[in-house]
TrEMBL record:
A biological process term (GO) from this entry: DNA integration
GO molecular function (one): nucleic acid binding
Organism: Pseudoalteromonas nigrifaciens
Name recorded for this polypeptide: Integrase catalytic domain-containing protein
Alphabetized PROSITE patterns for the sequence: INTEGRASE
Amino acid sequence: MELPRNSVWGLKGSDLAEDGLYRILEIMLDVTSIILFPLNTKSVTTRPFAVSIEAFTENVKSRNASKAGFNLPSFLLVAEENIAKEHITRRDKNYSLIEGIISDRGFIFDYATKKRVSHLAKHAKKVGVDRKALSRLLMQYWRYGQDKMALLPAYNNSGGFGTDKKPTDKPLGSPKQPRTVAVERSVKFIVTDIDKNKFRKALKKYYLKQTGLTLSKTYKNMLIDSYADEVRLANAYGKPPVVPTLKQFSYWSKKIFSKDEFIKSRTSENDHLRNKRGLLGSVIQDSYLPGAHFEIDATVADVHIVSELGSQYVLGRPIIYIVVDRASRMIVGMHVSLFHASWRAARQALSNCFMPKSRYCEEFGIDIDDSEWPCSHIPKELVCDNGEMIGLQPKKALNPMTKLSFTPPYRPDCKGVVEKRFDILNKEVIHEFLGTTRGANVIRGSRDPRKDAIYTLKEVTVQIIKAVLEHNKSIFADLAFSSPLLVESDLSPNPINYWKIHLARHKHELQAALPQDVISRLLPPAQVSMTRNGIHFNGLYYSNKEIEERNLASIARSSGQWKLEARIDENTTNHIYVKLDKNKSFELCYLSPRSRMFKDKSMYESEFIQDWLDSKKELTPISVTSIDDHQNRHHVTKNAKKRSYNAEKITFSEKTKNVRQRREDELQATTNILQPKIQSNKNIDITPSENRSDKIVSLPVGRKRRTKGESS
């Protein structure tokens, strides 16, 4: 059994000594004894004692004695270079006083076993100190580990540090000192326990609340509540009142309540958890693997945009959706739209997250390989707000794919990774745009940012995509401490390297996404019509090879149009996904040439045109001219009816008789055309080729039909 010198042992239920901690000072094999020194005693003249090695060993075997630990005071745990010179001098002097006897084994055994030890008195006389002072130094040396550092002076508790002073008739602390002799300061107030209770009540009543007053205002209210009589009396005598000062009130408020109590009482629980709690954890404490947690959130972009079809029309500020992998900090999906934060916009961001990015970037004129943005996977868990994602539609669409995890209300810190990405995008890109609001920090009287808006939704989206690609290649120091794979492979600690190396080593929690499944589940559904001009949606027309081969437009022209189910990618008008047959998957249909004005634009532009057209119709639902014309027609009709009523009554046959002749008479009467006089055929020689219209040709008369009842 190992019994090292200077080790600490705990005795419990032993017959050797009382329960407590003991230090082994010496092991004396010649007398088979162990010298123990008690550590729990508070006496300054405690002596060590001796026990037999055999008895101590038996106690260890019977578990009445076991190894233990003893914490040294903080003033001894200091590096040599941080100790004050006067303390080192005092330590070395104390050590020199006992240095001659601490190495004397005979003295230690006699001191532990005999009541009187003459050697101690002789040594005290030799070094010129009192015997009791020497005994106290020995006890301090043995108690704190038999080392020179044990003799450092314990000045850390000087003056009763950490203990409240009992008030007396004499004020504590330095007295009030006037700056000049001409002014006499008031008597210093002595704070008693009664005053401390008044302080406590005032602090609870006025200060320790979410909407609490300031400390100075609390002090004034405390004087009104508790010291009003003293103030009135002093005012009557014309002398300063004997009341606590603001400095005393501030000092004792920190003594009565801890800083933590001040922080928790003056803020709400949510604000404390979000902005004031200690950040001892890490976002990757649950898992450092890519795909374990994706975070999704939306924010209003700090920039105003204009329409592509008319730059004079300001469309407001777009909404940015971001999806981030918590472990790698990789931005795995995004969506920029004019819709407010809703499931309609969130599903677009998720579909972008789960599908390859090369086609998405191509729609905005950015050519990349899938390896430059290698994110087309479904996570194990999706962390989202307790808002647009909590409905039945998101659960039906996403639960078969991944698990939804909702953060508590008003706790954006629970998804701090995606919140930080918004801050990065604002600083790197958005706040440099013309028309930016710079986080809504608008100074009164400054220029309205809407006046400077010049960028379209597509242009803003292009710049954000480029910023995302740059972000995924940026170095983040935290990633170097998240996983050893980056260091082992000598890769820069950026999101794309973190993502790729973990996927290459098969250390991830991602699953592949089927494009058709993502299209059918996540893209917004819509009803489209098969018409003679192609598939019609929102004023636009689409077609593809299968529609042309099957002559579906011709059938719609002859038999009438019909409805089809579709999925809309609101990022572009260039294509939509249509299910041409009930039992088939969605087919890609491209924009028709008749809708070429909307090529390479977003779906929001077509909706803008619809709104613009509706606004024009609402502006002039009927023209003023049409109103005047309608009233004039009504007046003419009324006059005509009146004239017809007053006309001579004739039969219908007389009214319709000789219409041609009446037309000629009407022309001669209402026009200035000179009509040639018609002469007889005898006097005018007309060739057969001239004036054929003036000849009268007699046609053969048919046999008169007999009516029923006539005789033959």
